[in-house]
Design a protein that fits this description.
This protein is of the alpha+beta class and about 160 residues long. The chain has 2 domains: about 20-60; about 70-150, no CATH class. About 35% of the residues lie in helices and about 20% in strands. It contains 4 helices and 6 strands, in the order αααβαβββββ. The chain has helices spanning about 20-25, 30-65, 70-75, 90-95, and strands spanning about 85-90, 100-110, 115-125, 135-140, 145, 150. The protein has a 4-stranded antiparallel beta sheet with strand order 1-2-3-4. A two-stranded antiparallel ribbon has the order 5-6. Strand 5 (about 145) and strand 6 form a beta hairpin. The chain is rod-shaped and about 115 Å long.
């Protein structure tokens, strides 16, 4: 008779008997394996789709021309203007942001007093500028005369 103590016998797995009762308890069913594989492939293809979309969006952003409004904002912050043509590369004003693009802007005095017409052209470095400007703006800069900045202060308006 047993004195109330449980006895356990250890038998390595390779020596255990493979009866039909033990087989159903130790292995996955075909349905469980198929569901696990379906979940694995679903997760894998979801991640691949996400990476693909991110790469496509990055490529689309890289191919776009720089906005001409970026140049316009730089010019609008000045309080002096003269008739001129300025040409350069975006690497000079925004390093690393738009490599491979150049700009050209021209300013001419409009027929009305104090209004300046500024045309902006943007193109890849290897291409020519188009005939039509990418952006045209009118700025009112009263401190600038027809040939450049006025000398001296502006006359005061009577109150």
């Amino acid at each position: 008779m047993n004195s109330g103590k449980a006895t356990f016998t250890f038998m390595p797995r390779k020596f255990q008997s493979h009866s039909k009762e033990n087989m159903g308890k130790t292995a996955f069913s075909l349905l469980e394996v198929m569901i696990a594989l379906a979940v694995l492939f679903l997760v894998t293809f979801s991640i691949l789709g996400l990476v693909s979309r991110c790469l496509r969006n990055a490529a689309v952003l890289y191919k776009h021309k720089p906005p001409a409004s970026m140049l316009a904002s730089m010019i609008a912050s000045t309080n002096r203007m003269s008739e001129m043509t300025v040409q350069g590369q975006f690497e000079d004003i925004a390093p690393g942001l738009y490599p491979g693009f150049k700009y050209l802007w021209t300013s001419t005095l409009a027929e009305t007093g104090g209004l300046w017409r500024i045309d902006f052209f943007i193109a890849p470095v290897s291409a020519q500028f188009s005939e039509q400007p990418d952006l045209s703006i009118l700025l009112w800069i009263p401190q600038s005369g027809p040939r450049g900045p006025l000398i001296g202060p502006l006359p005061r308006q009577p109150r």
